[in-house]
Specification:
This is CoA transferase. The chain is α/β, with parallel strands linked by helices. It is 33% helix and 17% strand.
C-alpha cells in the first residue's frame, strides 16, 4: 500500500509498530506522515482498549499484518519483521512481548523506542499506568478545574499526544545519528517525564514557597480572562491590559466602565474578577458566538469561539489548512475523520488510506528478505556523539513556544543562539522573580543557549543578525506574523539570500491562514482547537491547566526542525520553510475523540481527591510540590541544578527524550540579559554596549564601514 508521503523525509525507513499505547499509534502516524513505511502489528482478536479504541485512526497511512501469537508461523514472521526493521515502537509496560524485545539483543543499526507510563528507572518503573493515572501522579490533574472544586482529568489524552511528538523527535534524532555514525540505539520516553516538563509554568510558584492552584478558565493574575456563555455556545475572551480593557468596554458599548475606579488598573480588575466576569457574561449572553467574536475581532481583543470537538471539521482555519480529513475505512466501509500533519511545509498531503486488517501480509512477507542484516548488540554503549552536533540554530523566540523548541534542540547538541530585543524576552519579566530580579520561568525555558541582544530596528543590528544567520542552519521564530518580514527577515527574504537555512515559523494560526493578524494566546488556541471542549466541568468547557497549546507548538517546532534538517541533508536543494500553527498541533492532539460519540466520552472528575485507574487502583492526586519531592522525579533526572555563565545556578528541567547511547544533556542556564559569550564575541567581532545591546566592535571605534 502506498502511503501518503512514500517519497518523503523517511522514505525507505521501515518502522514496525508493536506497542499498544495511544502514544505509540500517534508516533507511528507522525512517522508515516513524514514518509516512513510503518507496519502495524495487529492482534488476532479485535480489541477496543488502548489504541484499538479507534482502529481506523490507528491504522491510517500504515500497512497491516494480523498476528496470532498461538501460531508458530506468525511468531516467526513477527520475529523476522522486527529484526528487519529500522525502528521498532514498543510500550513495554503493557506487554510481556514488548518487555522481552526491549531487554533482548537487537540489530546494531536498529532504533528501539519504548513509550511507557514511567520509564525504565525509579520506583514506578514498569508500572502500567493509564493517561489518567499518570495525570494524577504527576499533578497534571491538580492543575485542571476550578479552584473551589476537585481536580480534573483531561478529556483528551494530551500526555499521550505530547509523548508521541517527543518520541517521534527522538526517533528522527536517532536516525540522524545512525546516518552519520552508523549505529542505532534504544530510546526511552515516559508520560511521567513529559508531564513534569509540562508543569513548567507552575513550578516557579513552588520555588518561592507558594502553592500552585487550579484556576478553571481564568488566569491566576489577570482579568478579564475566561470563557463566557453566549446564546449558542461559549466565547473565550482575554483582555487584561489597560488598552485591551478600554477596547473591550468600547466593544460592549459600556464606556462608563473605563472610568469605574474598581476597574481602573490591572490589580483592581483582578481584585474584582467576579464583577468583571458578571459584566462580560451579561454582554455575551445576549449575542450569538459569531456576533461576539466579530465585535471582539474588530476591536483586536484576543478571543475566539470554544469550538466543540465535533465541530472541528467545519472550523474555517483547520479546513483551510487541511488538518481534519475525511476517509473511508477499508475495514468497515464507513467514513471517518483523520488528522493532517502539523509539520507543514509543502501544503496539504493526500489523505492516507486505511488498510483492512491483514491486508498487507503478502507484501510484508516479500519485503523482509530484501532488508539489510546487521550484527546484534546488547546494552547501551554511550557515545560522545550528540545528535545535533555541528548544527547551529538561531532562535528569535518569546515566551514559551519558540524557546521550548530551542531548549530541546540545545539538549540534543545544537548550538542555539537566542536573539533578544533590548528589553529581553517577555518571560524575563514574568513573576515570580528571584531576589536578584531574574525570572524563574525564563530560566526553565531557556537552557543550553547563548544570547545576543539586538535592536532590529537599527541597521547595524540587522547586519549582525545577517552575519549570524549566514553561519547557521536553522532560524526558528514565534513572533507575531509579519513582524520579521517588516524588518527584512521574513522566510522569503532570508531564504532568497541563504537558501541553505531551514526557516521555522510558529504562531497561533499559521502564515497561510484565514485569520491574518489574529492575536493568539494558549487559552484562545485551546478554545479554537477542541482542547477546551474535550474537558467539561459542570457543563462548562474547561481548558487544560498545563499550557498545552504553547507546548505542542514548541514540540512540533522541535520535530519540524529535526525533519527539515534531515530533509535538507539527505535530499539536497533549498532548505524547507516550515509554517507551523499552534491550532494545528492542538487540534491534532484531540484526534482520538473525532470518531467517538459524546456518550463514550471519558469520566473526568476525581473522587474525594483520588483517581480510580483502569485496573481498579486508587491513587491520591499529587500536587506540584509532591512531584518535586517524588523519588521518580529524582530517579529520572527531571529537576536539575545547572550553572549560568554569569555565575550562580538555576533549577531547570531535564529532557523527556532519553536516547540511551547519545543522551540529550541539559548543561547550562542562560545568563542575565546582555551577558555576551566570549566565543560569539570573537567569532563575529562583537562587544556588549552599555545599553545591553550587542554591537560590532568596529562600530564603537567609528570604523564600521
Amino acid at each position: 500500500m502506498e502511503t501518503a508521503t512514500s517519497t518523503g523525509l523517511l522514505a525507505g525507513c521501515l518502522v514496525v509498530e508493536v506497542g499498544e499505547r495511544i502514544a505509540v499509534a500517534a508516533c507511528g502516524g507522525l512517522l508515516a506522515q513524514l514518509g516512513a513505511d510503518v507496519v502495524l502489528v495487529e492482534p488476532a482478536r479485535q480489541r477496543a482498549d488502548h489504541k484499538w479504541s479507534d482502529r481506523a485512526v490507528t491504522a491510517a497511512g500504515k500497512r497491516s499484518i494480523v498476528v496470532d501469537r498461538a501460531s508458530a508461523d506468525d511468531r516467526k514472521l513477527v520475529e523476522d519483521l522486527v529484526s528487519a526493521a529500522d525502528v521498532v515502537l514498543l510500550s513495554s509496560d503493557l506487554s510481556d512481548e514488548d518487555r522481552a524485545l526491549w531487554g533482548s539483543a537487537r540489530p546494531g543499526r536498529q532504533i528501539l523506542c519504548d513509550i511507557t507510563a514511567f520509564g525504565h528507572e525509579g520506583p514506578l518503573a514498569g508500572v502500567p499506568g493509564s493517561e489518567a493515572f499518570v495525570e494524577a501522579v504527576s499533578a497534571v490533574a491538580d492543575t485542571t478545574g476550578r479552584r473551589d472544586a476537585l481536580p480534573v482529568v483531561l478529556g483528551a489524552p494530551l500526555l499521550e499526544m505530547e509523548s508521541a511528538v517527543y518520541a517521534a523527535s527522538a526517533v528522527v534524532a536517532a536516525l540522524r545519528v545512525r546516518r552519520r555514525h552508523g549505529f542505532g540505539q534504544r530510546v526511552d520516553v515516559s508520560l511521567y517525564d513529559v508531564a513534569v516538563n509540562a508543569l513548567a509554568t507552575f513550578l516557579p510558584l513552588t520555588f518561592i514557597g507558594r502553592v500552585p492552584t487550579r484556576n478553571g478558565n481564568r488566569h491566576p493574575t489577570l482579568s478579564p480572562w475566561n470563557s463566557y456563555r453566549a446564546l449558542d455556545g461559549w466565547v473565550l475572551i482575554c483582555a487584561p491590559t489597560d488598552e485591551q480593557w478600554v477596547r473591550l468596554c468600547e466593544a460592549m458599548d459600556r464606556p462608563e466602565l473605563v472610568d469605574d475606579l474598581r476597574f481602573a488598573t490591572t490589580s483592581g480588575r483582578m481584585d474584582h474578577t467576579d464583577e468583571i466576569d458578571a459584566v462580560v457574561g451579561a454582554w455575551t449572553a445576549q449575542r450569538s458566538v459569531a456576533e461576539c467574536v466579530g465585535l471582539l475581532s474588530r476591536h483586536v481583543i484576543p478571543s475566539g469561539p470554544v469550538t466543540p470537538v465535533g465541530g472541528l471539521a467545519g472550523e474555517p482555519n483547520l479546513r483551510h489548512r487541511g488538518m481534519v480529513r475525511s476517509a473511508v475505512d477499508s475495514e468497515t466501509g464507513e467514513a471517518v475523520l483523520l488528522p493532517g500533519c502539523p509539520v507543514r511545509w509543502r501544503g496539504t498531503e493526500p489523505v492516507p488510506q486505511i488498510p483492512a486488517r491483514d491486508a498487507d501480509r503478502t507484501e510484508i512477507g516479500a519485503l523482509i528478505p530484501s532488508r539489510p542484516t546487521a550484527g546484534e548488540v546488547s546494552g547501551d554503549p554511550v557515545s560522545e556523539v550528540r545528535p545535533l552536533e555541528g548544527i547551529r540554530v538561531v532562535e528569535i523566540g518569546m515566551n514559551t513556544v519558540g524557546p521550548l523548541a530551542g531548549r530541546q534542540l540545545g539538549a540534543l547538541g545544537a548550538d542555539v543562539i537566542k536573539i533578544e530585543p533590548p528589553r529581553g524576552d517577555a518571560n524575563r519579566h514574568n513573576a515570580p522573580l528571584r531576589s536578584d530580579g531574574q525570572s524563574y520561568i525564563f530560566a526553565l525555558l531557556n537552557t543550553d543557549k547563548r544570547g545576543l541582544v539586538l535592536d532590529l530596528r537599527q541597521e547595524t543590528d540587522r547586519q549582525v543578525l545577517w552575519d549570524v544567520l549566514a553561519s547557521a542552519d536553522v532560524l526558528i521564530e514565534n513572533l507575531k506574523p509579519g513582524s520579521l518580514h517588516r524588518l527584512g527577515f521574513g522566510p522569503e527574504q532570508v531564504q532568497a539570500a541563504l537558501p541553505h537555512l531551514v526557516y521555522c515559523s510558529i504562531n497561533g494560526f499559521g502564515h497561510d491562514t484565514v485569520y491574518p493578524g489574529r492575536p493568539a494566546l494558549d487559552t484562545v488556541v485551546q478554545a479554537m482547537s477542541g482542547v477546551m471542549s474535550a474537558t467539561t466541568v459542570d457543563g462548562v468547557p474547561t481548558k487544560a491547566g498545563i499550557s498545552v497549546s504553547d507546548q505542542l507548538g514548541g514540540l512540533f517546532g522541535l520535530l519540524g526542525v529535526l525533519a527539515a534538517v534531515e530533509h535538507r541533508e539527505t535530499h539536497g536543494g533549498p532548505a524547507p520553510a516550515l509554517d507551523l500553527a499552534m491550532q494545528d498541533g492542538s487540534a491534532w492532539a484531540t484526534h482520538r475523540l473525532w470518531n467517538v460519540s459524546p456518550a463514550d466520552a471519558r469520566i473526568v472528575a476525581a473522587e474525594d481527591g483520588l483517581w480510580l485507574d483502569e485496573d481498579g487502583t486508587r491513587t491520591p492526586v499529587s500536587t506540584v510540590n509532591d512531584v518535586l519531592a517524588h523519588p521518580q522525579t529524582t530517579a529520572r533526572g527531571l529537576v536539575l541544578d545547572r550553572p549560568a555563565a554569569d555565575g550562580g545556578s538555576w533549577t531547570v528541567l531535564g529532557s523527556p527524550m532519553r536516547l540511551l547511547s547519545t543522551p540529550a544533556v541539559v548543561s547550562t542556564a542562560m545568563p542575565r540579559l546582555g551577558v555576551l559569550d566570549p566565543a560569539l564575541a570573537a567569532e563575529f567581532g562583537l562587544v556588549a554596549a552599555e545599553d545591553g545591546r550587542t554591537l560590532r566592535a568596529a562600530s564603537l571605534s567609528g570604523k564600521e564601514s
